[in-house]
Amino acid sequence: MPIVRLSWDRSLTVLLASNAAIIIVALVQHWNISSMLWIYWLQSVIIGVFQAARMLSLRRFSTAHLRINGMPAQPTLGTKTFIVAFFLMHYGLFHLGYGLLLSQHAPLVLGLLPFAALFVINHAISLRDHLRADENSIPNIGALMFLPYARIVPMHIILILGARMPLDQTGLALFLALKTAADALMHVIEHSIS
């Protein structure tokens, strides 16, 4: 049974600062909901890329409760390669579909890329912390494969609900605060499972 320890870390600080910067700029520049959906789509893609890098970096890992083609998976290089490839394909197709849906409403604006860079910095810090912790433990690769989905589902539910509501400045601020809270909560849970 995983042990959950709630704690504050550097990457949570950077995550909250990144979200705060986006909230301030969004309110000052009167961003529309499409811009918000794109920036958090970019964040989700970044989460997936860094999670794949973490799984590939594992030297030791558990495959408890993990089955491949109906058979118990073994903690081998082949299993790790298969899991990472499957994750990238499934997670990637999910985001490709989501991106195509978003592009029907508004194009991706290149001006959002600096904000995506904030999330890259955040997840690079988080990956470094994870890699250190992984050296002293035996993470379950199946759990690692599913963590990004648990992390992004609350965020995407909030985004989808927000896309269906007309948002004034107060509504936009509330929407962004809820999204940030969901993102921070899932970050804390992900970092506290050992």
Task: Give a structural overview.
By secondary structure, the protein is an all-alpha fold. It has one domain. 73% of the residues lie in helices and 2% in strands. The chain is built from six helices and two strands; from the N terminus they run H-H-E-E-H-H-H-H. It has helices at residues 10-28, 33-57, 77-103, 113-135, 141-163, 169-192, and strands spanning 67-68, 71-72. Strand 1 (67-68) and strand 2 (71-72) form a beta hairpin. Helix 2 (33-57) packs parallel to helix 4 (113-135). The chain starts with 9 loop residues before the first helix and ends with a helix.
Main attributes of the structure:
two-stranded antiparallel sheet; mainly alpha; 194 residues
Low-confidence stretches: 1-6
Arithmetic mean of pLDDT? 83
Summarize the amount of helix as a percent range.
Answer: over 70%
Assign an overall shape.
Answer: globular
What order do the helices and strands follow? HHEEHHHH
Number of helices: 6
Radius of gyration: 18 Å
Sequence of strands across the biggest β-sheet: 1-2
Note the main sheet: 2 strands, antiparallel
- Quickly give the structural class: mainly alpha
Tell me the span between the first and last alpha carbons. Answer: 9 Å
Overall strand count: 2
Total domain units: 1
% residues in beta strands: under 5%
